[in-house]
Automatic annotation (TrEMBL):
Belongs to the peptidase S1C family. Transmembrane segments: none annotated. InterPro entries: PDZ, PDZ_6, PDZ_sf, Peptidase_S1_PA, Peptidase_S1C. It comes from Pedosphaera parvula (strain Ellin514). This is 2-alkenal reductase. Pfam families: PDZ_2, PDZ_6, Trypsin_2.
Length: 574
């Protein structure tokens, strides 16, 4: 040990490196207002001196680092050694390739978010989807007579077979057939929404949940016009699907179908909402009841046999429709009952066991889909045209007339035929419904705006005659005449043609190539007015039609098979 001139003590002779690092000699000097404490750390060939400057209260004022014995030669030698070490390490280490770091792709991040959204919808909705297996008995006899020799009422076809051969034709035990569909839970106490055609004529209905549990179900109610059915299983605390307001569904948004196509349970497919308010869709099974209450959501999400009754959901996981129909396999054209209609029907099926519809007893067309009539009612942009009033319908007892344009129902605007049906469907039977009506007067400029009161009746399939946005063929006749002959109504003619009329002109002949025939006017129809001019004399009729502009179109009001209706007779464009 030795002491230097700066009163610093250096310790030497350490063999343990750890103790060497921890060693040090503290000294102090009194300078001015404070004391300088020094700690010397000894290292091989190099040590440092840390100076802590404290005041009288031993508070640290500053710290300095000194290399009191570091000469320029020593520093140069150390730097040289350091450079050699770095070079050696560089040579001994394998050369690294230049790796370019990819830049973040915001589009890829968006794709991941969208992917996650679909995954979440599938995980959230699937527990509320059920697989429905239906067992039915075949009741058809295996023994059939040839065509034209069918059995009469009460006759057993085996009676025509000699007794000694009858044992070979005894009916075998009834075979059972099974079918499968889908459904969606709408109440936690076991109510399930599905299609009528899934559970129709079922002897046994089995429902399987996502967790594997199975239950026997009973039918609570079916509605053929909408193809909606509700079944019930005996359990509680079920996961429930959320039903969307389908009126807010927009064409182009995502649509996700979940169900059991081809017995492949909980299959998820997605596409888009292709269209809304699709109607006049023919059921694939000719023997199925006609779905007269149609307002389908069209989708290109893959829907196949077995998807029927399952949900069509949006990206928020809300049910926008119940998958019902497909237009062939793998065509990308499927149809779903909108959730608003399904909910309305299901609520009544749960409480009453049936759904009672109100109806007006009219045939209608969207004003937008009737360009031939627009020029006869100027100033009107939207509404629903009454094309026919059924003689046995509620509207026949009101002031509503063929040709009237209904613009609102109880103050709610209607634009399409389906909107008018939707507005009337849930009304109370026999309760007044106020219709806002635009009616053509004696001339195109004479437009009347009226309030017409109608008391809806109960919907019956056999009486329904409702058109919805249908497309009629254009008239391409260039004859310039109506192509018919008429006579004044008399008692004898009325009896002959079996019509209930006391005035007007009875159509006695129709030219098959004329305007009248092309628009469905037939022998026996009674014309009551032409372009709002009442007619009852054949001579007056002939004078009237001389000045008709068939290029513009002629409005003919008539009674056909007891129904008041009107037709527009118009020549097509050359």
């Amino acid at each position: 040990m030795h002491r230097n001139s700066s009163d610093q003590y250096i310790s030497s002779g350490f063999t343990n490196y750890a103790s060497f690092l921890n060693c040090g000699i503290y000294t102090h000097e009194n300078k001015g207002s404070g004391t300088i404490w020094k700690k010397s750390l000894v290292r091989p060939s190099l040590y440092t001196t840390m100076h802590w400057h404290r005041d009288q209260n031993h508070r640290i004022l500053k710290a300095t680092n000194h290399f009191p014995f570091m000469t320029r030669q020593k520093l140069h030698s150390l730097l040289s050694i350091f450079a050699i070490l770095v070079s050696t390490l560089a040579l001994s280490s394998p050369a690294k390739e230049n790796v370019s770091v990819p830049k973040p792709n915001p589009n890829l991040d968006l794709a991941r978010q969208l992917n996650q959204a679909f995954v979440q919808v599938a995980e959230e909705v699937s527990p509320s989807v059920v697989v429905i297996t239906v067992t039915q008995k075949t009741t058809e006899s295996p023994f059939k007579l040839p065509p034209g020799q069918e059995q009469n009422d009460g006759e057993d076809p085996l009676d025509r077979v000699p007794p000694e051969f009858r044992k070979f034709f005894r009916q075998s035990p009834q075979e059972k057939s099974t079918g499968q569909g889908s459904g969606v839970i709408i109440r936690e106490d076991g109510f399930i929404l599905t299609n009528r055609h899934v559970v129709e004529d079922a002897e046994k209905i089995e429902v399987r949940l996502k967790d594997g549990r199975t239950f026997q179900a009973e039918v609570r109610g079916v509605d053929a016009p909408s193809d909606v059915a509700v079944i019930k299983i005996n359990t509680q605390s079920l996961p429930v699907a959320r039903l969307a307001d389908s009126s807010k569904t927009r064409v182009g948004e995502f649509a996700i179908a979940i169900g059991a196509p081809f017995a492949l349970d909980y299959t998820v497919t997605f596409g888009h909402v292709s269209a809304k308010d699709r109607s006049n869709i023919v059921m694939p099974d000719p023997e199925s009841p006609t779905m007269t209450d149609q307002s389908f959501i069209q989708t290109d999400a893959n829907i196949n046999p077995g998807n029927s009754g399952g949900p069509l959901v949006n990206i928020d996981g809300e049910v926008i429709g119940i998958n019902t129909l497909i237009r062939g396999l793998h065509t990308g054209i499927g149809f779903a009952v909108p959730s608003n209609l399904a909910r309305e029907v299901a609520d009544k099926l749960i409480t009453d066991g049936k759904f009672t519809r109100a109806w007006l007893g009219v045939s209608i067309r969207s004003f937008r889909e009737y360009p031939e009539y627009r020029e006869f009612v100027p100033g009107i942009q939207d509404g629903v045209v009454v094309t026919e009033i059924l003689p046995s319908g509620p509207a026949a007892k009101s002031e509503l007339k063929p040709g009237d344009v209904v613009t609102a129902v109880d103050g709610k605007a209607v634009v399409t035929s389906q909107q008018l049906k939707d507005a009337v469907r849930g009304k109370t039977i026999g309760q007044n419904v106020k219709l806002d009506v635009v009616r053509q007067g004696d001339s195109p400029k004479d437009i009347q705006r009226l309030k017409v009161i109608v008391k809806p009746g109960e919907y019956e399939d056999k009486n329904v005659l409702v058109a919805s946005n249908e497309t009629y063929p254009k008239i391409d006749s260039s004859s310039g005449t109506l192509g018919l002959k008429v006579q004044a109504v008399t008692r004898d003619l009325a009896e002959h043609y079996n019509v209930n009329a006391t005035e007007g002109l009875i159509v006695t002949s129709v030219d098959k190539t004329g305007l009248a025939a092309r628009n469905g006017i037939r022998v026996g129809d009674v014309i009551t007015s032409i372009n709002q001019h009442r007619v009852s004399d054949p001579k007056e009729f002939r004078e009237l039609i001389k000045n008709l502009d068939t290029k513009r179109g002629v409005i003919v009001n008539l009674i056909s098979e007891g129904a008041a209706k009107f037709e527009i007779l118009k020549e097509g464009d050359d």
